[in-house]
TrEMBL record, chains A, B:
Catalytic activity entry: RX + glutathione = an S-substituted glutathione + a halide anion + H(+)
GO biological process, one term: glutathione metabolic process
Entries under PANTHER family matching the protein: GLUTATHIONE S-TRANSFERASE, GST, SUPERFAMILY, GST DOMAIN CONTAINING (PTHR11260), GLUTATHIONE TRANSFERASE (PTHR11260:SF712)
Keywords annotated in UniProt: Transferase
Cited CDD domains: GST_C_Tau, GST_N_Tau
Broad class of enzyme this protein falls into: transferase
Domain GST N-terminal: from-to ranges: 6-85
GO molecular function terms listed in the Swiss-Prot or TrEMBL record: glutathione transferase activity
Protein name: glutathione transferase
Keyword Ligase: no
GST C-terminal domain location: 90-217
Gene from which the chain derives: 11409926
GO CC, alphabetical: cytoplasm
Length: 224, 224
């Protein structure tokens, strides 16, 4: 089988939503790859060599050619292995998929993170509102079962943080932001997405992440 | 001629490097379009309607379908009008073009801007070093006349701020960062890029921008 003759390696971190994005994309395509788990705060020299600019995972290495930045990697995967497309074929729909993916990175993840892990009341409030506004845009944008239609696509994969990570962070920090009352469509989407067979098998263990964020939050509160 | 039957409109600002990116892309393709100049700080309701998320220009409207975010727009243009490709055809080279374009947005423009328009000495110093480091990565990356090879491509267009805007900002603020001594290849590139016939005819007037940034810098210094 042709795919087996190629060397595909992914350097990642089990708890990283960015690594998980790439794993979901590779699994959707049925691409076989070797996974190399890195250490938080102590990345291997190999990763630093492959990604000297950001010194971060994920890094995909395909036949010795390294690629960094999760959204760049996913587009590469979609263009290299054509089966089960991740981006739509129509240029306008592709543009929308890219637009909303960038939006999730810029306008959802950054404030959502701050809302959870900022203790300053005023900043927290501001980030909370920004996150709500951003989630509302996604709520309005969601027309089908998935952002990609009947199947998951680029926006869905990019939003894995919202579906899986944020509810855990919310539980740890006691936030009431992403609820089925406030965002019924987005909430249903998150359930469908997390239960999608390929997504499900690639998500990290919930208990592990919960313990990790709990420790982090407690140390933050203690340091106040 | 088929191109004339389509309606292509660009909402932009003459002094915006992001609008200029899109204009260069459209001109490279030979796409005819109607340009609508917006007002700084007072965008039209039409732009707000087309880009409710960011409320910013540039916005491209093609047969009534709006697209925002300059890099998303450029990929759309490249996929819609195939002549004079802006991205390479090879998936790996495409990934690199996307990677470095994102790098310019994240790691060059933000610190370069801060270096110029932050008065706090320490922050200014930090941004100066970040900008130098980022420019050094580009210096090392530049192998041919242009980042795109013999012709300008996505990275070149994205970097219009470095070629044209930053030298003006530098002149106004007295920075000595982007010089031919420190970055000989990148400096030569900036000359070739600014003198490329299509780029040249789409850059704003140098004197106008110089006066604009001078006023801005003086008001910043006065407010200290």
């Amino acid at each position: 089988m042709a795919l087996n003759q190629e060397e595909v390696k992914l350097f990642g971190l089990v708890g990283s939503p960015f690594s998980t994005r790439v794993e979901i994309a590779l699994k959707l395509k049925g691409v076989e790859y070797r996974y190399e788990e890195e250490k938080v705060g102590n990345l291997s020299d190999t990763v630093i060599k492959y990604n000297p600019v950001y010194k971060k995972v994920p890094v995909l290495v395909h036949n010795d050619k390294p690629i960094a930045e999760s959204l760049v990697i996913i587009e590469y995967i979609d263009e290299t292995w054509k089966q089960n497309p991740i981006l739509p074929s129509d240029p306008y729909k592709r543009a929308l998929a890219r637009f909303w993916s960038k939006f999730i990175d810029d306008k959802c993840m950054i404030p959502a993170w701050k809302t959870a892990f900022t203790l300053d009341e005023k900043e927290r409030e501001k980030s909370f509102e920004e996150t709500e506004d951003a989630f509302q845009f996604l709520e309005n944008e969601l027309k089908d079962k998935f952002f990609g239609g009947d199947d998951i696509g680029l926006i869905d994969i990019t939003a894995v943080f919202i579906a899986f990570w944020f509810p855990i962070v919310q539980e740890v920090t006691g936030l009431k932001l992403f609820t089925s009352e406030k965002f019924p469509k987005l909430y249903n989407w998150s359930q469908d997405f997390n239960n999608h067979p390929i997504v499900k098998e690639n998500l990290p263990r919930r208990e592990g992440l919960l313990a990790f964020f709990k420790a982090r939050y407690e140390s933050l509160v203690a340091s106040k």
